[in-house]
């Protein structure tokens, strides 16, 4: 039987995971989903591929993965089965059956990240796993001007972890913005681009907050883009405030709404067992 390729949009709370990518001795998002798929296939290994990694403590509202599955199961049933077999920290938001040439990582055309900062003077224990606590005065005009300096195509070597290898550090940032949530007294940073380097968004935030605090000059982003030196930029902000919100693809690559109506004999048996398990 031909293996079928599935594309999933997945949400997860990254607090108690050692990141997305599978690791031999740690609990990961990829590991948990593959464990569920192995139960569904009665022992057949299914390897998932993500649009990219997220670090320990980083969250996702729109991570995209794909995998090839040995049986034909309608997309809605695949979603229901995985949500019944994975921990409540993971939720499969959407499932579709796609063409064999779709790849969650290599077909991406861009990503959107957000970062939450709690400005309250006293730390909120209910926010500690989902925001960066930063109870210091901020110059919002300086912050917004500095964000604009990040937009466009640049060599972002100063905003990339030093151990990220020799890859090309040129990326295009389409949006770098911030809004103030007065009700919750939080900042919400948004970054959209055609790609992001390792720790890039977290280094953005760490540097931007220093500019807004007056610890760095207003034109610091321009200087950092020129020097191309990670040691010159600000600290890497903590992971818990970071969220992968959306992954973008060309519309011609992944066919939305495609599904199989016919279920093969083996797939039908597996689906019957999954229905029974879910009850």
Automatic annotation (TrEMBL):
<feature type="domain" description="Pseudouridine synthase I TruA alpha/beta">
    <location>
        <begin position="146"/>
        <end position="250"/>
    </location>
</feature>
<dbReference type="InterPro" id="IPR020095">
    <property type="entry name" value="PsdUridine_synth_TruA_C"/>
</dbReference>
<dbReference type="InterPro" id="IPR020094">
    <property type="entry name" value="TruA/RsuA/RluB/E/F_N"/>
</dbReference>
<dbReference type="InterPro" id="IPR020103">
    <property type="entry name" value="PsdUridine_synth_cat_dom_sf"/>
</dbReference>
<dbReference type="InterPro" id="IPR020097">
    <property type="entry name" value="PsdUridine_synth_TruA_a/b_dom"/>
</dbReference>
<comment type="similarity">
    <text>Belongs to the tRNA pseudouridine synthase TruA family.</text>
</comment>
<dbReference type="GO" id="GO:0031119">
    <property type="term" value="P:tRNA pseudouridine synthesis"/>
</dbReference>
<comment type="function">
    <text>Formation of pseudouridine at positions 38, 39 and 40 in the anticodon stem and loop of transfer RNAs.</text>
</comment>
<comment type="subunit">
    <text>Homodimer.</text>
</comment>
<dbReference type="Pfam" id="PF01416">
    <property type="entry name" value="PseudoU_synth_1"/>
</dbReference>
<dbReference type="GO" id="GO:0003723">
    <property type="term" value="F:RNA binding"/>
</dbReference>
<feature type="active site" description="Nucleophile">
    <location>
        <position position="55"/>
    </location>
</feature>
<protein>
    <recommendedName>
        <fullName>tRNA pseudouridine synthase A</fullName>
        <ecNumber>5.4.99.12</ecNumber>
    </recommendedName>
</protein>
<feature type="binding site">
    <location>
        <position position="113"/>
    </location>
    <ligand>
        <name>substrate</name>
    </ligand>
</feature>
<feature type="domain" description="Pseudouridine synthase I TruA alpha/beta">
    <location>
        <begin position="9"/>
        <end position="107"/>
    </location>
</feature>
<keyword id="KW-0413">Isomerase</keyword>
<dbReference type="InterPro" id="IPR001406">
    <property type="entry name" value="PsdUridine_synth_TruA"/>
</dbReference>
<dbReference type="GO" id="GO:0160147">
    <property type="term" value="F:tRNA pseudouridine(38-40) synthase activity"/>
</dbReference>
<keyword id="KW-0819">tRNA processing</keyword>
């Amino acid at each position: 039987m031909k293996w079928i390729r599935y594309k999933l949009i997945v949400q997860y709370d990254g607090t108690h995971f050692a990141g997305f990518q599978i690791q031999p001795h740690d609990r990961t998002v990829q590991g948990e989903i593959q464990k569920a798929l192995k139960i569904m296939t009665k022992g057949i290994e299914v390897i998932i591929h993500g649009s990219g990694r997220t670090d320990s403590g980083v969250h996702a509202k729109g991570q995209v993965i794909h995998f090839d599955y040995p049986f034909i199961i309608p997309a809605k049933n695949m979603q229901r089965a995985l949500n019944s077999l994975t921990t409540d920290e993971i939720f499969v938001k959407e499932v579709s059956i796609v063409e064999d040439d779709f790849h969650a990582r290599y077909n991406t055309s861009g990503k959107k990240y957000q970062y939450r900062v709690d400005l309250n003077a006293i730390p909120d224990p209910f926010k500690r796993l989902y925001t960066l606590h930063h109870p210091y005065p901020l110059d919002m005009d300086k912050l917004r001007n500095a964000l604009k300096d990040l937009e466009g195509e640049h060599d972002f070597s100063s905003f990339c972890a030093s151990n990220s290898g020799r890859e090309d550090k040129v990326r295009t940032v389409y949006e770098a913005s911030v809004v103030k949530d007065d009700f919750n007294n939080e900042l919400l940073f948004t970054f959209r681009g055609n790609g992001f380097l390792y720790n890039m968004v977290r280094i953005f935030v760490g540097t931007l907050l220093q500019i807004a605090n007056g610890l760095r000059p207003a034109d610091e982003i321009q200087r950092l883009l020129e020097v191309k030196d990670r040691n010159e930029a600000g600290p890497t902000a903590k992971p818990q405030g970071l969220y992968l919100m959306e992954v973008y693809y060309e519309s011609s690559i992944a066919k939305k709404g495609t599904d199989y109506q016919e279920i093969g004999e083996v797939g039908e048996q597996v689906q019957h067992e999954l229905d029974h398990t879910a009850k």
